[in-house]
Please model this.
Amino acid sequence: MIPIDLKGRRALITGGDSGLGAATAKSLAQAGADIAVVYRDGPENAEKVAAAATAFGGRTAIVRLADVADRNQVTALFQWMDREFGGIDILVNNAGMDGARALCAEGDPTAWRRVLEVDLFGAYYCAREAVGRMGRQKRGVVVNTTSVHEFIPWAGYSAYTSAKAGLSMFSKTLAQEVAGQGVRVVAVAPGAIKTPINANVWDDPKGLADLDAKIPMNRVGEPDEIGHVIAFLCSDLAGYMTGVTVAVDGGMLLYPDFRHGG
Model:
């Protein structure tokens, strides 16, 4: 048996109150980590996530961050982490948005900028605070949640795809910068996962059939399947991995239309 052991590791998860963030909190807690769940709106979901994580024996707390794209709020968040947890060992940059669908020539530049501010600048602000602390202690892991759309274009969502592709290269560059300090930086690119944000697709038989046709494994992924991969990447079992994107997508990047030849 090879266990994933995160006992004594202090983890901060942005967007940790639902979907992939909640699943990640559960997986890290199962592995023994102490968990800080960052939420934006009401605390009800975050409290449920924290209570579930506590059942595995570690310490949990919730903290509100109204806007991950606000540098001052992010600074205050990490000061809170210093006070309440005494530092940080794991950062999971999970907070993000895809924005309203709009073709480039028809879209609102302000809305386009907002997606980048949340998905890319927000991750940058959090990572900037985290790696400074991790570098001083010579240990730490940053996990950035990208998407298969860092690789695959998505018409109508150019802000989202640009942000995720940018976050991928940011992850690689940051990994290069901090590798000598004992800090690892990796990205996880989920494919189609069954979360509330896309329930309108997988809850509809036609939408689900269309989605399944894009996935060689012929099914939508479960949130825990992302959480488990993140737990592994945060552990010493992945201690020689940095600067890479790990796709967890049921084979979506294999372009299933080419299964029968070009």
Summary: The beta strands are 10-13, 34-39, 60-64, 90-93, 140-145, 183-190, 245-248. The first strand starts at residue 10 and ends at 13.
